[in-house]
Amino acid sequence: MFRFRLVAALAACVAVSQIAAAQDFDTPALAPVVDDRTPNYDLPMPNVKNNTARTDVPRLRSAIHAIDAELAAQDINVPATLAAAFEGLAEALTSTVPATVGDLWFNGGILSVVPEGGGRPKPEFGRVVVPGGLPQFVDLAQPPYRTLGEATPDTVAFGAGNAIVYCPNLGCIKDDADWTHMATSALIMSETRLGPVAEENTLSVSTRISTGARKVWTADTVYEVGDYFAASGDSPTYEVISCTGDCESGATAPTSEKGDPDETNGDLVVRWVNPPALSAKTSIYNDVEVIGADASGSAWANVHNMRFTGGVQKIFMVNTELDFDNQSGDCVIGTSNCIVLYITPKGDTSTAALTIQTKGNKNKIWQDSPTNSVPGKPALHWGMRFTGVADTLLADRDVLNFEVGNADNAIGFNTFNAAGTFSFDEAVIKNRATAPVIFHNLGNGTTAAFRDESASALGFYATGVKSGADARLGSSAPTGLHVLGTKGSYGIREQSTAPIGLKLDGLYSSKQVEGAGWDVSPAGALTANALTANSFLKLGGFTVATLPTCDASRRNEIRVANDLTSPTAGGSLTGSGTDRRPVFCGNSGWVSMF
User: Fold this and answer.
1) Mean pLDDT calculated for residue range 513-539
2) What is the gyration radius of the CA atoms in the chain, in angstroms?
């Protein structure tokens, strides 16, 4: 009976809609009639003068009367029919007679479908289930709702109060006998149906943003009523309410805030609209609030799980993809920022803005090529990778840029684990790029431009081909290169093939090189506590005439005179000869040593 009455009510509604669709609204089908059934709703009353100019109200009233006449002719009483239908529905909801499979049930405002075998549906699950596009009952309470390898039914389910129990791939506790550890209020499940002819999505949200633009406020500029503008990207939004004269803005930007009266700005009257962030439009806005120190546990704003099973042909698998295609023109830093991923920690100190953590056994077999498996490798080739496509430039300025302050380090490795429990098999930083300068430091270091406190075989090791330099220190600092720690072989080792291994040609106010017990002056003079020559010691030659004056500043110097005439040991020097001997600066001038 209930089904008959519901069908009759639906048929009556269809008849009404068919008559309305067939009604001719170009010209009134009937003469306009005005009575208490057709209130005016503040529209002009029809009369002889305005009937031709304003015909919308008469046409609507004519259509209503035509529909009433047609229903009367078919002997259909819509209110009575609907009342009878809902009366039958009420009888069915309170009846103890088993319902028919496929009937729709309303219980407490919840829509359900009668299960196979008849009987009344379970009212504790508020859901709409549509597998295969046909309404039918799926008992979501049966554990598990889906097991690994089982075909996914096409399901859209709603269960108020997290009433739907299911088992996701990466969030399923396998030893939970009741399978009740994962519950949700809205569930969408689907299985792909097509071959590689199309992309298949479980849920797609498509948004076209065509409103919300703000103009930039400038002084003495003409605006129109209805324009929105802001003085800068982080300034409030104002709306032009009205204007006088030439509609030009004033000399200074508006300053009114929320709740203030409308503000006069030059010829304009403007009104505060909202803070700058509220003018943005979003496709999906996910908001989660975590409250109560004693009430909340672990929480995620978003969880994206993806699992590969055996035999999957893995060509291109991505957990989260962020495509950003800007075809509107260049983005300007600070004015029109276009950012692919924007992370903004706020409030009290957060642990990390971005954490990449792998899980699993390091001794698992790791595939480094389609035909080669290597044991003992981690889950990732790269922890983080920056790469361009073909010849496309990845970044115009820096691939990785730090513009931060109040931090211990710009980049830290293993600083959290002070005991040094983590190590790297090859290098902490590895570079294979070709550039004029590999490491270019332009900062102002108060202690050192480069500081090595490690215990390693080499303090600094550079190989490869550079067009500029292995290392260039252009900063202003007390120390250009400061090497500390325990080295197994060398602090600094130069082993290249070059015309000059180490070249010093700066402006030195004290010394070029200083060591323990020896130094080299800015003029190149070597001072040492001892000098050992394992092979030979070669001195440059002078003529007697070019020897410097032997005064107190040159006492004990040894040089070579290469034009001596008949020299004798301890004797004074006579030039213009051919004899070559070492000479000594003593108390009485230069003398021959033998």
Assistant:
1) 92
2) 44
Distance CA 351, CA 355 (A): 9
Angstrom distances, CA of residue 55 to CA of 17, 37, 60, 189: 22, 18, 9, 52
Q: What is the pLDDT of residue 124?
A: 35
* Cβ pair 130, 154 in contact under 8 A: yes
pLDDT band at 520 (very low <50, low <70, confident <90, very high): very high
> In which band, very low, low, confident or very high, does the pLDDT at 556 lie, cut at 50, 70 and 90?
very high
How far is it, in rounded angstroms, from Cα 386 to Cα 50?
A: 72
Give the residue among 53, 49, 54, 58 at the shortest CA–CA distance from 25.
Answer: 58
Q: What is the H or E stretch that residue 188 is in?
A: strand 186-189
- Asked if residue 520 lies in contact with residue 489, where contact means CB atoms within 8 angstroms, the answer is no
Q: Which two tokens stand for residue 473?
A: 């220190």
* pLDDT confidence band for 486 (50 / 70 / 90): confident
CB under 8 Å to 298, separation ≥6 — which residues?
A: none
Amino acid sitting at position 399? V
Q: In what order do the strands lie in the sheet with 513-515?
A: 513-515, 518-520, 526-528
Q: What are phi and psi of 185, to 5 degrees?
A: -100, -30
Place of tokens 């004519």: 62
Phi-psi region of 226 (alpha: psi -120 to 50; beta: other; left: phi over 0): left
If residue 263 lies in a helix (H) or strand (E), which one and from where to where?
strand 263-265
pLDDT category at 580 given cuts 50, 70, 90 is: very high
Q: Which of 97, 71, 104 is nearest to 3 (CA)?
A: 104
Q: How far apart are CA 225 and CA 241, in angstroms?
A: 6
pTM summary value: 0.57
462 vs 432: CA distance, rounded Å:
11
Rounded CA separation 302/550 (Å): 86
CA separation (Å) from 180 to 304, 376, 391? 20, 36, 52
35-68 pLDDT tens trace: 444 444 444 444 444 444 445 555 566 666 666 6
Q: How far apart are the first and last CA of the chain?
A: 140
Strand-strand pairing, 186-189 and 183-184: unpaired
Note the pLDDT tens digit of each residue in 163-196: 666 667 677 665 555 555 677 777 777 777 788 8
Which H or E run includes 374? strand 372-375
- Residue 6 confidence (pLDDT) above 90: no
Tell me which H or E stretch contains 264: strand 263-265
Helix/strand/coil (H/E/C) assignment for every residue in 375-400: ECCCCCCCCCCCCCCCCCCCCCCCCC
CA angle centred on 267, ends 263 and 271, rounded to 5°: 25
Tokens encoding 71: 């229903």
SS3 15: helix
Q: How confident is residue 237, by pLDDT bands cut at 50, 70 and 90?
A: very high
- Burial string for 481-507 (b: 16+ CB within 10 Å, else e) reads bbbeeebeeeeeeeeeeeeeeeeeeee
- Report whether the peptide linkage leading into residue 370 is cis, meaning its omega lies within 30 degrees of zero: no
- How far is it, in rounded angstroms, from Cα 165 to Cα 570? 110
- Look at residue 329 in the predicted model and tell me its pLDDT: 78
Helix axis angle for 56-73 and 2-22, nearest 10°, is 140
